[in-house]
Design a protein that fits this description.
Mean pLDDT: 82
Largest sheet: none
Distance between the termini: 64 Å
Number of domains: 1
Number of strands: 0
Number of helices: 6
CATH superfamily: Cytochrome c-like domain
Radius of gyration: 17 Å
Order of helices and strands: HHHHHH
CATH architecture: Orthogonal Bundle
CATH class: Mainly Alpha
Shape: globular
CATH topology: Cytochrome Bc1 Complex, Chain D, domain 2
Strand content: under 5%
Length: 104
């Protein structure tokens, strides 16, 4: 029984560590940096593509989940969104929602 308790404790600690890492702002920032090539630094687009900075968390999560499900049309985003977990989508959405709106 002691072996099972140790294994269980190890599992709980591992899961807690994974969630603690995901809550780390540096992880969210690194994830969001993958969007910079198309959507601009910190999500402030300098092109015709949508700015992500300042978009509400709810709106971004909904759009990314729609891309991921294939119910929203796009060029690259439906393919890219399939590679993100729900937790990563939530992290990125929270990070972009906290960024200042871009000046135009």
């Amino acid at each position: 029984m002691t072996t099972f308790r140790i294994a269980g404790l190890a599992c709980v600690l591992w899961v807690a560590n994974v969630f603690a890492q995901e809550a780390d702002p540096a992880v969210a920032r690194s994830l969001a940096a993958t969007c910079a090539g198309c959507h601009g630094t910190n999500g402030a687009s300098a092109t015709a593509l949508a700015s992500l900075a300042g978009m509400s968390r709810e709106e971004m999560v909904a759009k990314l989940r729609d891309y991921k499900a294939g119910t929203r049309q796009g060029t690259l985003m439906p393919q890219l969104a399939k590679g993100y977990t729900d937790e990563q989508i939530e992290l990125a959405a929270r990070w972009f929602a906290a960024q200042p709106l871009p000046r135009r």
